[in-house]
Amino acid sequence: MQTKLCKQLGVDVPIFAFTHCRDVVVEVSKAGGIGVLGAVGFSPAQLKEELDWIDERIGDHIYGVDTAIPQKYEGQGESDPDKLVEMLQAAIPEQHRQFAEKLLSDHGVPAWPEGDDEVTLSFSLAQAQLLVDEALTRPQCRMIVNALGTPPPEIVEQVHKSGRLIGALAGRLKHGINHKKAGLDFIVCQGSEGGGHAGEVTSMILWPQMVEAVAPLPVLAAGGIGSGKQILAAMSMGVEGVWLGSMWLNATEAAAEPAQRDSYMKASSEDTVRSRSFTGKTARMLKNEWTEAWDREDTPDPLPMPLQGYLTFDATRRTHRYAGSGETQKVAFNPVGQVVGQINQVESCKDIMMRLMTEYSEALDHITAITPE
Ligand SMILES: Cc1cc2nc3c(=O)[nH]c(=O)nc-3n(C[C@H](O)[C@H](O)[C@H](O)COP(=O)(O)O)c2cc1C
Fold first, then answer.
1. Ligand 1 pocket: which of 15, 16, 18, 248 to mutate (most atoms <8 Å of CB)?
2. For the whole model, what pTM was predicted?
3. How far is the CA of 367 from the centre of ligand 1 (A)?
4. Structural domains in the chain?
5. pLDDT in tens, 104-152
6. Could you tell me if 35 and 142 are in contact, meaning their C-beta atoms sit under 8 angstroms apart?
7. Residue 224: CB within 6 Å of ligand 1?
8. Atom of ligand 1 nearest to the CA of 338
């Protein structure tokens, strides 16, 4: 399964695992793929701690770090991270705060304990710059990936000067073309069915169009992959690897609460929705009373990014911490793709990797078997 991009990176298997969980990063990389740590929810100090933990365990294997610098956002241009957060917090209307709080209290979600009020959300260049600086001090971190836009030229130059690769997610062709113009090394092309921020065009349509539009740049296929059959389908369209997010959420090593795991296991592929209700940009997540409440005509509209994220930061952390209490799951933020319908068991990352590779070979054999000479 090794592709040119894998060779360039020195890994055996073109399976990239996006995750917010350090354990998943280490286990996927050890199993021959590449774990990529989503850093958007970490302060620079927290990221340092996570990367120390990874570096102590990952040995000679490599990993990546993912940032989220949107193309456009409120407060763009403010270079002081503290001032930016202050400005954003002040811009959130009281009506929105009350609406969010009522949804939580109506569903019995306990308040966050006093004393830990640090809000860590890095949806800006000023904040992401500090995360990139930290990641680039790590020899085993071999790539930076950016979500939500083309990374600014100074970040591209900094990553390249350090001898690493830089890529970015793209949910539309024009985003991929802009990434290529900016000198990125690869594109992660995410179809609409994927978890997290996603556009309108589905993977089956978008992947082959992207491969053609940005050639010869390597493309990784994201959105809707949870089996080896789906990997083979993606590879047949010319991509050089696959990038999975949802499938790791229920892995043994993932930091998921039992109630969250239960939500993933019960959900079918019809139970997700693209909603602006948590981050302000359209993201795919489990449909619930929270997503429906923000969608109604008579309720406040979600705020632009990153204001909605700051507004819902408290909801996100409370619904994770108290995932199992009361009716929390009805208002919890559970970003996941339509592939959630294929999450039916708890597997270790190593087993998921083995299963994906075995299924891939079986699917290849199947094609040979059904196409006699
Ligand atoms: C829980 C969750 C959180 C995500 N957060 C981010 C993020 O912070 N940055 C990013 O680049 N992609 C993020 N994504 C998108 C993934 O990187 C990936 O493209 C997507 O999950 C692929 O589709 P799949 O969910 O069908 O595997 C997230 C996905 C999920 C499921």
1. 18
2. 0.96
3. 30
4. 1-73+123-250+355-373 (3.20.20.70), 81-120+256-342 (no CATH)
5. 999 999 999 887 767 677 888 888 999 999 999 999 999 999 999 999 9
6. no
7. yes
8. 26
